[in-house]
């Protein structure tokens, strides 16, 4: 039996427009990664909160920053944090710089759990790709994510050393904190250059 006319149109459109296939692949990968994260008594949202907190810099460990990163409400994040605290994986502390503010911190038990992060399975699959494919995949997905975030009006988030506000003042033999944030003018340690920041601004100026 020959395919129906709508089927022929759909197949022709997919072949002619690879963007459809990319969006569907991203959706499928998202479903796979979500399914992987129903383990060790945690939900995907709880894993995401724990993972983010472990990588966030000093400006980005508040419950508000976490809510913005996950694209959810403060009320939803509050419930996620309560669950993680009860399990002993995360704690809320008063910020030393501003006692009115709360910062999140991963506990030793949380760090041990992250060693069994279910997304490590995805990392293993990516590691099998040739180097040039891994680089192209990372760059392409990063640009696509930033474009979507801009159109939706959300914070970009990103790694400190890739930010347009990052000042690489460090030189061989200089102190570890010779890097500087162009927004706050504060010194940044070498470790912090690899952390996620809520104030991230992409050097990519495309609209």
Structure description:
The strands form three sheets. The chain has a three-stranded antiparallel sheet, with no helix packed on it. A two-stranded antiparallel sheet has the order 1-2. The radius of gyration is 20 Å and the shape is globular. α4 packs across α5. The protein has helices at 5-16, 18-36, 44-55, 63-70, 74-86, 108-114, 120-127, 131-152; strands spanning 90-94, 102-106, 158-159, 166-167, 179-181, 187-188, 196-197. It is mostly helical and 207 residues long. It has a domain at 137-207. It has eight helices and seven strands, in the order αααααββαααβββββ.
What characteristics describe this protein?
mainly alpha; 49% helix; two-stranded antiparallel sheet; single chain; 207 residues; 3-stranded antiparallel beta sheet
The parts where pLDDT drops under 50 for at least 5 residues are none
The proportion of residues in beta strands is 5-15%
What is Rg? 20 Å
What order do the strands of the largest sheet run in, or round the barrel if closed?
4-5-6
Number of helices: 8
The chain-level structural class is mainly alpha
Distance between the termini: 48 Å
- Overall spatial form: globular
Helix content: 40-55%
Number of strands: 7
Note the run of SSEs as H and E: HHHHHEEHHHEEEEE
Main sheet overview: 3 strands, antiparallel
Average of the residue pLDDT scores:
86
């Amino acid at each position: 039996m020959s395919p129906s006319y709508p089927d022929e149109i759909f197949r022709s459109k997919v072949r002619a427009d690879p963007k459809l296939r990319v969006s569907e692949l991203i959706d499928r990968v998202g479903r796979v990664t979500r399914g992987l994260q129903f383990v060790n008594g945690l939900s995907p949202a709880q894993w995401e909160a724990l993972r983010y907190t472990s990588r966030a810099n000093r400006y980005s460990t508040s419950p508000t920053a976490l809510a913005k990163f996950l694209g959810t409400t403060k009320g939803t994040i509050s419930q996620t944090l309560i669950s993680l605290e009860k399990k002993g994986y995360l704690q809320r502390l008063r910020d030393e710089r501003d006692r009115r503010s709360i910062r999140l911190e991963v506990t030793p038990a949380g760090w041990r759990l992250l060693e069994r992060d279910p997304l490590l399975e995805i990392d293993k699959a990516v590691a099998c790709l040739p180097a040039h494919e891994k680089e192209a995949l990372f760059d392409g997905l990063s640009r696509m994510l930033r474009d979507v975030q801009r159109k939706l009006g959300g914070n970009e988030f990103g790694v400190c050393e890739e930010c347009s506000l990052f000042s690489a003042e460090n030189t061989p033999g200089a102190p570890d904190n010779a890097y500087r944030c162009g927004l706050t003018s504060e010194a940044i340690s070498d470790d912090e250059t690899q952390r996620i920041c809520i104030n991230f601004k992409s050097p990519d100026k495309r609209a």
